[in-house]
């Protein structure tokens, strides 16, 4: 995948996360944020490794998100809490998978369209 569109995608993901948190309260921004967190990891992986296969990017991004969530079962240094979180929440695991799955679907389709165009 070309790097410029991927870098712009990273910016859009961050903007969506900030916008959702600014506009809504309650569980919507929390769980959307979880999916977007994984989407950002996915996009950063594609930015770093443009030829990564969609299923690999999905597995790595979901796996990293899950690992970070499970780290919250222990003590996380205060300085890292804004990025890594501080409280383990089992439903977050589902939303990380949703984010990875949606990214996989979009990435898979984009690659298929690119292959058709030759």
What does this structure look like?
The chain is an all-alpha fold. It has one domain. The chain has 5 helices and no strands. The longest helix is centred in the C-terminal third of the chain and has 28 residues. Keywords: Membrane, Transmembrane, Transmembrane helix. This is DUF2809 domain-containing protein. It comes from Nonomuraea rubra. Pfam families: DUF2809 (PF10990).
> How many strands appear in the DSSP assignment?
0
Radius of gyration: 15 Å
Q: Report the portion of residues in β strands.
A: under 5%
Largest sheet: none
Class based on secondary structure composition and strand pairing? mainly alpha
How much helix, percentage-wise, in residues? over 70%
Organism: Nonomuraea rubra
Keywords: Membrane, Transmembrane, Transmembrane helix
InterPro entries: DUF2809 (IPR021257)
Pfam family, one: DUF2809
Write the layout of secondary structure elements.
Elements: H1 3-23, H2 27-48, H3 54-71, H4 81-84, H5 90-117
Task: Offer a quick outline of the entry.
The protein has 118 residues and is mainly α. It contains five helices and no strands.
List keywords for this structure.
118 residues; mainly alpha
């Amino acid at each position: 995948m070309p790097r410029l569109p991927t870098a712009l995608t990273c910016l859009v993901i961050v903007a969506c996360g900030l916008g959702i948190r600014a506009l809504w309260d309650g569980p919507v921004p929390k769980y959307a944020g979880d999916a977007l967190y994984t989407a950002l990891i996915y996009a950063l992986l594609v930015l770093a490794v443009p030829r990564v296969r969609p299923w690999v990017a999905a597995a790595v991004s979901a796996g990293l998100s899950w690992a970070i969530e499970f780290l919250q079962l222990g003590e996380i240094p205060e300085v890292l809490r804004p990025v890594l979180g501080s409280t383990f929440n089992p439903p977050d695991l589902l939303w990380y998978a949703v984010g990875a799955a949606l990214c996989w679907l979009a990435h898979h389709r984009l690659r298929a369209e690119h292959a058709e165009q030759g």
